[in-house]
């Protein structure tokens, strides 16, 4: 007995059923994005148009006045400058350190797993804990680092109290915390490059530097793009180390924009103005990310 051939209607019904099943699988993730990502963004844009506080609720409608005020606010502009300086210094240094560490640990040996784990351990440690421990170690009077410096007969350094050192200290601590993540991503990218390219280069007499510069870097650009963009976005969102180590001081030297937004929202109860600054920061992050993706885009494949 011959089986009936599938009709166009039954094929369409099967396709629709597959779409529904696929949608049910991704629905929780979509719900998460809508509730915890997109709705807060839309809500922040709406609140930024009002004079609003958590205790007083909505008061006067200010329209774009909050944006005009922010763009003429020296404290906000200074915090944007500090945040930009933090990102410009931190991200390249972190990428260079991560690349060097990835080259160091890419060789397989008996102890290399221990070395990789040691470098990655700070990544899974709480940022708050890391910041507090480093603040204790770098304390001017009681910190062991300054104790060692004093033992050597050198003057103590105000790592967190000197306005010329505070931002650099925060950058150092966050690089120490985050470099393991970048290293793992870059290491995975290096492991994905086929050995045939290096073997062909060796036959042609290429040096280690030439293979690194002509093979590794071009084939690693897509992975590098991911690392640079994600770390730049994270740099613009820095808050915890500043909150735990310097509280924006000394003399606003480490007052990044997220700490200023926190002060406006919860210390001064000015949630509308804080939302305005958040929307501006979001726009800056989007523009910077698009520029980075455009500049670092690579057509090299393997």
Top keywords for this entry?
302 residues; two-stranded antiparallel ribbon; 13 helices
Describe this structure in words.
- The protein is mostly helical and about 300 residues long.
- The chain is about 70% helix and about 5% strand.
- The chain has helices at about 10-45, 65-70, 75-105, 110-120, 125-135, 145-150, 165-190, 195-205, 210-220, 220-235, 240-245, 255-265, 270-295; strands at about 50-55, 55-60.
- The model has no long low-confidence stretch (mean pLDDT about 90).
Please outline what is shown here:
With about 300 residues, the protein is mainly alpha-helical. Strands 1-2 form a two-stranded antiparallel sheet.
- Count the strands? 2
The whole-angstrom Rg is 25 Å
Q: In order across it, which strands form the biggest sheet? A: 1-2
* Model regions low in confidence, pLDDT < 50 over at least 5 residues: none
Major sheet characteristics: 2 strands, antiparallel
Number of helices: 13
Multimeric organization: single chain
The structural class is mainly alpha
**Terminus-to-terminus distance:** 52 Å
Shape: flat
Helical content (DSSP H or I, runs of 4+)? over 70%
Strand content: under 5%
SSE topology:
Elements: H1 8-47, E1 50-53, E2 57-61, H2 65-71, H3 74-105, H4 112-120, H5 127-137, H6 144-151, H7 166-191, H8 195-203, H9 208-219, H10 221-236, H11 240-245, H12 257-267, H13 271-295
């Amino acid at each position: 007995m011959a089986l009936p051939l599938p009709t166009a209607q039954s094929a369409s019904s099967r396709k629709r059923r597959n779409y529904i099943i696929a949608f049910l699988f991704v629905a929780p993730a979509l719900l998460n994005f809508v509730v915890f990502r997109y709705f807060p963004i839309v809500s922040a844009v709406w609140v930024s148009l009002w004079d609003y506080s958590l205790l007083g609720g909505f008061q006067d409608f200010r329209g774009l006045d909050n944006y005009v005020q922010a763009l003429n606010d020296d404290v906000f502009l200074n915090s944007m400058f500090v945040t930009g300086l933090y990102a410009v210094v931190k991200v390249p240094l972190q990428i260079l350190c991560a690349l060097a560490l990835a080259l160091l640990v890419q060789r397989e040996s008996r102890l290399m797993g221990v070395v990789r784990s040691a470098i990655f351990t700070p990544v899974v440690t709480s940022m708050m804990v890391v910041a507090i421990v480093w603040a204790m170690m770098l304390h001017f009077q009681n910190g062991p680092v300054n104790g060692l410096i004093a033992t050597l007969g050198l003057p103590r350094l105000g790592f967190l109290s000197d306005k010329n050192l505070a931002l650099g200290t925060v950058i150092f601590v966050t690089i120490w915390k985050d470099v393991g993540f970048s290293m793992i991503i870059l290491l995975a990218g290096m492991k994905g490059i086929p050995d045939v390219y290096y073997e062909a280069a060796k036959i042609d007499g290429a040096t280690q530097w030439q293979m690194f510069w002509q093979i590794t870097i071009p084939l690693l650009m897509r992975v590098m793009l991911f690392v640079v963009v994600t770390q730049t976005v994270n740099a613009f969102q820095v808050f915890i180390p500043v909150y735990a180590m310097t509280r924006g001081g000394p003399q606003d030297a480490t007052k990044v924009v997220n700490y200023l937004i926190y002060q406006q929202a919860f210390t001064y109860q000015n949630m509308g103005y804080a939302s305005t600054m958040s929307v501006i920061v979001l726009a800056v992050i989007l523009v910077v990310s698009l520029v980075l993706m455009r500049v670092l885009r690579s057509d090299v494949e393997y």
